[in-house]
Amino acid sequence: MNRATHLLATDLDGTLVGDRNSLKKLLDFYNAQTYTVSLIYITGRHYQSALSLMTEQNLPVPHVLITDVGTGIYIGDSLKPDLEWSAFLEKSWMPQQIDAIARVIPGLVSQNLPITTRCSYFASDLAIVEAFRSQLNKAGIPHKLIYSGGRDVDILPSGSGKGQALQYILDKYKLNTAKLLVAGDSGNDVEMLTLGFPSVIVGNAQPELLKQTEHPSIYRAKQEFAGGIHEAWRYFYTD
Ligand code: GLC
Ligand code: MG
């Protein structure tokens, strides 16, 4: 990983995954290059769910797998958990207290995940999310709240999230000079897309991303899913 020269850090659902034909074209394109593109997958899914998707879609095993909206990190072919990252996040994490508050917010429905390293819910209305946010703040619970796709509410340990997890990996493996493209399609991708690295919002992105302010490092692809990644790769890195 330390010697990677080219990196694709991409969300899975709705970004790398969603159109099999363009996914195949992108992977064939990468295989045809003289350089190797190291893959970092950054997904909202929990670990088992991410593995199922990788199997179902026949995705290459990534060099780094970041799960649970940036709260889980797995490294190398054997996907070894990064314990330094989990220990850092545990320090100020209060899942029971978060769940207790969530239970009394009308309209907030638990996702019933098999993990407690993040707390995730469904909410169909921004007012519900704002009520939750204000109760968490009132109780002084350290957290990061992310609302995506008009449906998913993720409460994460502070210091985590897709952007901070990606930056942690870039720092840890001294990858800041590699040619990097960051790709996403929804609200939980905003932080990684706005780190300042070449980034792409794919053509099928959710409304919350489409209204993201213009920035020279963010390319808005016309193509959807992996086709958008391919379009942006050529835009940034054809030399
Ligand atoms: C994925 C996860 C879900 C999460 C959402 C948004 O869909 O499965 O738990 O809330 O991403 O981050
Ligand atoms: Mg997505």
From TrEMBL:
- Hydrolase is among the record's keywords: yes
Which residues are in the Sucrose phosphatase-like domain? 6-236
- Record-linked Pfam families: S6PP
Q: Name one GO molecular function term.
A: hydrolase activity
Q: Which InterPro entries match?
A: HAD-like_sf, HAD-SF_hydro_IIB, HAD_sf, SPP-like_dom, Sucrose_Phosphatase
Q: Which UniProt keywords apply?
A: Hydrolase
Domain of life assignment: Bacteria
Q: Sorted alphabetically, which NCBIfam families does this protein's record hold?
A: HAD-SF-IIB, SPP-subfamily
Indicate what this protein is called per its UniProt record: Hydrolase
Q: What is the lineage of its organism?
A: Bacteria, Bacillati, Bacillota, Bacilli, Bacillales
